[in-house]
Amino acid sequence: MDDDQRVEGLISAFRRDGVCTVAPFLDGAEVAALRAAVERLYAGEIDGDGWYAMGPPLGLRDEGAVKTLMFGWWVSDAVRALVHHPAITSVAAALLGTDRVRVWQDQVIWKPPARDDADVAGNIGWHQDYGYWQDSSSPEMLTANVVLQDNVERNGAMRVVPGSHHLGLIGDGGSFFDTDLDGVRARLAAEAGRDLSPRLVEVRAGGASFHHSLLLHGSGPNGSTSPRLAIAIGYVPDGTSFRRHPGRRTPHTLFLGPRPRPGTAYADPAFPLVWDGGPVPVR
After folding, report:
1. What global pTM score does this model have?
2. Is residue 203 in a domain?
């Protein structure tokens, strides 16, 4: 199978299911270096004199619940390099159907081992990313979830509801931090008026899954003995702009100034261009 066929296969799966996966593009040493970078971030060590925009206090080591730190690329050279990695940004461009892609955000995710079989603190609640991203002029956005260990059922790999991105925004889009997975899914199923059966998405260390901003997804507890670490990077087509809406506000709009107007583009420096044409190096 040549690269063009691989790309077409990814695009077909993404359009149909709202999710697709790519084989590892990072080797073992690169994965280990990124895990160390995540450890450094959560220990309170940053690169440069910047500031991170949203997350737990750096240095906080509560092992009971999922932690997520946004805009890690601002303060971590390793995360910055990953955000710009052509094996990710080129695929994002192909899936979004654009030649020019910008970073929307990243999330450095730490899912600790469960304390016992009944512990649900490590759950990530059912949600649609666009429920949090409605300041964007279009839901044609995606997340590349780069995994830093094999993601399997035991350590709480992501689950998705295939095709749910075709339903539009369901209610308020669910809740990332609501650990009652069954309760949230039942509520969203009632609002959608259809069954929302999940599917496990397993990815090997150094690989990634890509999912649409309207895809319903979540995950269960980490039953392994090590933290499950991931760097989830949101990408948008160049030209994506601010819109007013009645839903949740996001920190992204703060970077546009005190009174952004509808149509104001998300652009440099907070939303840098990371892909500007060229062949797609798919594995």
Report:
1. 0.93
2. yes
